[in-house]
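User: Hi! Is it possible to get a structure for several chains at once, not just one? Here's what I have:
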Amino acid sequence: MIIGLYTVLSHGNLVKKLIGLNLFQASVFLLYISFGKVVGGTAPIIEKGFEVYSNPLPHVLILTAIVVGVATTALGLALAVRIFNAYGTLEEDEAIAAEESDGAAAS
Amino acid sequence: MATFELINIALLGILVATAIVITRMRALYGAVMLAALFSLVSASMFVLLDAVDVAFTEAAVGAGISTVLFLTTLAITRSREAQTPRRRVLPASLGALFTGGMLLYASQDLPGFGTADSPVQEHPITHTYLEESQHEIGVPNTVTSVLASYRGFDTLGELAVIFTAGVAVLLILTYLPRQSEEAERAALLLTDYPVLRVVSTILMPFILVFAFYVQFHGDYGPGGGFQAGVIVAAGFVLYGLVFGLDSGRRVMPRRVLLALVPLGLLLYAGVGVVNMLLGGSFLEYGTLNLHHPEEGQHIGILLIELGVGVTVAAVLTVVFFAFAGRRVPR
Amino acid sequence: MTAHLPALQVLLPLLCAPMCVLVRHRLVAWLFFLLATVSALACAVLLAVRVSGGRELHYAMGGWEPPVGIEYVIDAANVPVLILVSGIGFVVGIYAKRSIEAEIDRHRIPLVYACACLTFTGLLGVTATGDAFNAFVFFEIASLSSYALIAMGRRRRALLAAFRYLIIGTIGATFLLIGIGLAYAVTGTLNMADLAARLPDVYGNRALTAAVAFTFVGLCVKMAVFPLHAWLPDAYAEAPSALSTFFAATSTKVAIYAFMRFAYTVFGVTLVFRMLPVDTIGMVIGSAGMVIGAAVACFQKDLKYLLAWSSVGQIGYIVVGFSLHSVGGLTAAYLHLVNHGVTKAALFAVAGMLLLRLGSVRLSALAGLGRRMPWTFAAIVLAGLGLVGVPPTAGFVSKWALVVALVTDGKWVLVAVVLVSSLLALVYVGRIVEVCWFREAPATGPVESPPASMVAATWLLVLASLYLGIDPARLDSLAEGAARALLGGAS
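Assistant: Yes, the chains can be modeled jointly so their relative placement is included. Here is the combined structure:
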C-alpha cells in the first residue's frame, strides 16, 4: 500500500501514477477483506454442512470499491491519452514546463 | 492452519516484491503486466480469505479490463518513463511513511486476524446477513443478498459510478475533430493472425454462455450482474481486437451500445420507483409480490442484476472502443 | 408520496442523468438538467418545512431498518446544505444554457448535462445519507463526473488540471475508505448513528485514532483545505464557466458538511476535540489557509485564478468556525458556508460572462471595461464587497458571527488573523475594481452585452447574496438550528 502511494506521489509519468494508484487501492481492498475472515470459516454461500462463514459485508463493500477503482482508472487513462495528444508527452513535469513557456510567450 | 498462514505469507511476499519492482521499472509495458500479476495474486488471496465474489471481480477487472485499457493507452502514447526527478522523492517518501506509520499504529489495536469474536463478527447485522437472509430473501449466496437487497442502494450508486465513467470517457475521448476513419483502422489490432481468429470464433459462444451462467447463477454461487457484464464486454473486446473495430461495430452498433448504457441504470432505478408506487420504500423488492415478499425479492434481485449487467457490459465496451478508436501517433 | 421525499431528493436527479444520454438532444438534455435541479430544490424546501422544529426524518432504503440497510437522515444539519446545493444548481441551470453552448462542442453537450446531473446527484447523496460507506460511493459519483467536466475546459491546461484533481481526489477518497474501514473494523457497523452509539466503547483504541485521522485527511482533500488545496485553483479556473460557478458554490461545501457530520455526529465531540487535537489543528490550518489563500489571490493575473485562490482562503474561515465546537462557531461556519457559496458563485458567473464576451479574463484584458459594461461590473463590485465582508453584505454577517464566536472563546489571535485576511481580501477585490474602473480602456470595438439568461442568473445570485446580508435573520435561525442539531447529536 505504502509502495503504491509512494509511486503515485513520486512519479511524474501519468500512466505510472495510475498504476501506483491501482496498487494503493488494491492493498486497501486486502485490508478490508481481512476484517471479514474467520479462521476455519468458508465463503459466505449458505449450504448444508458448513457452520462458520466469513462475513459477507466487507466483500460487498470491496466489490463496490473495485468498481469505483476501475472507473477511476478508465477516466484517468482517457485523460492521459488526451494530455499526450495535446502536449506530446506523458510526463507531468514536461507538460507543465510546456505550459509555462507558453504562458511566458503569450504575456 | 499452519499451511494456510504460510500460503498467505508467501502470497503477501509476492505482492510486496511485485509492487517494488513496478515502482522501479521504467518500461511501462512491463509495469502494466506486473500490475496485472499483482491483481491475480491478490485475487488468489481473496479466495483464501473466503471472498470468492471479490476474487472473481478482481481477476476480471484488475487483471483483465484494466490491463487491456492500460495497454491500449500505451499503444497510442509512449511506453518509456523519464527518470524520476530527485526533488519529488522526498515529499513522496514522507507522505508514504506517514501513511504507513499511521497504519502500523492502527494495526496494534485491530482485532486479531481471523478471530471469530471481533466487533465485525459480533455485530448483530452479521447475524442478519448470514442467518435471517435465508428466510427474508432466500438466496444462498449472502454476498448477493447484501449487495442487491440489504445494501442495494450502494449498488445503485456503484452502477451510477460506472455509468459516470462511461459518459466521462465518451466525453473526453470522442467527438474530437480531425479523426479520420482511416486512422481508426490503424489502432491496436491483431487482425493478421488467423489462429487467433479461429480460436476466438470458437470461444465467442462459450464466453457468452458463461456470461449468462454468471449472470443468473449469482444467487447460488459467486457471480452476478457485474461480473457477467465484464465477461460480455471482454467478449466484445476480444472480437474487436481480433476482427477489427469495424466488424466489432457491425456486431454491436454504437447507437445500440449508447442506448444500452443508460437503460441498465434506468432499469435498476425503475425497479425502485415501482416499489415506491406499490407502497414500499425505494428498492423494497418485497412489494413486487405482495403475498410472497420472498418471491418479490427474487424478482427484484433478478431485475436489478440484469440492469447492472447491461450497463456494465455496455459501458466497458464503449470505453474500449473509445480508446481503441484513437489514432496511433506516427 | 411525501414520505418518499428524502429518497426523491437524490433519485430524481439520478434519473435525469441517464435520460440525458438516452435522448442525446441538446435542448432536451438541458431541460432534464433543469428538471433535476428544480425538483431537487422543491424537495429540499419541502424537507426544510418538515424538519423545522428539530425533527429528524429517517428513510430506510429497500425497507431494511438500519443498521442492516442504508438509511437517509434529513435533519436541521443538512437541510441548509441541500437547499444551497439545489438552489445554486437551479440558478446555474438557467445560466448554463448559453454558457455551455458557447464553450463546448455541440455534440458533447448532452453528455455534459448528464455529467452535471451526476455531480449534482452525488453531492446531494453525500449530504442526505446516514451511512458512512454510502457517503463514500456518492462522493465518488460527484468526483468522477467533476473530473470529466473540468477536462471540458477550453484550454489544454484543463486536461492537466483534471488529471491532477483525479490523482489527488482519488488518494483522498482512498484515505476516506481506509478511515471508514478502520472504524468498521472496531465497531462492525457502517451506519452513522450506530457507529456513534458504539464508538464510546472503544475510545482510546489506536485503530480508532487512525480511523479519525484517515477520514479527516481524506475529507480535507475534498474540502481543499490548506495545505491540501493543490488541485483547486487550476480545477476551478480551467473548468467551463457554468461549472466553475457550480463547483465553487457546492462541491467543497458539501465536503465541509461531511467533515462536520463525521466530526460531530459520528466520532463525537469527546473523541475528536477532547481526546484528539483536531480543534487546534483545524484552527492552525484554517488560519494559515485564510492568510495564504488571500495573499496568493492578490498576485494572480487571471480573474478566475484569483477567485479560486480566494476560495482557498475563505474555506479557512469555515474550518476555524467549526473547530471552535461551540454553537456560535458552528453557526458562523454554516452562515459562511452558505453566504460564501452564493457570493462566490455570483463572482464566477460574472467571470464566465466576461470570458464569453472578451475571450479572456486576464486582469489586463479587463482594463477600463467598468465604464463600458457598467452592469456587469456593478455585479463584481457588489459580490466582491461580500467577499471582503463590508456591511451590509452577506460576507459581513458571517464574518461578524465568526468574530463574535472567537471573542466569546477568547481567541484574540484568531480575531487578528481574520482581520488580516479580510484586509488582504480588500486588496485583491480592490485590484479588480482599480483595473476595471480606473485604467484606460484599450481602443477596441464595442463589447456585446452577454445573453439575457446569463445576466439574469448572475443577478439572481448577486441579489441573493445582498438579501442574505440585509435580512440575515432567516438564514441565521437555519444555521443555528443546524449547529444545535450537530452538537445535540454529539452530547
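The CA atoms of residues 195 and 214 of chain C lie 16 Å apart. Chain C has 19 helices and two strands.

User: Great, thank you!
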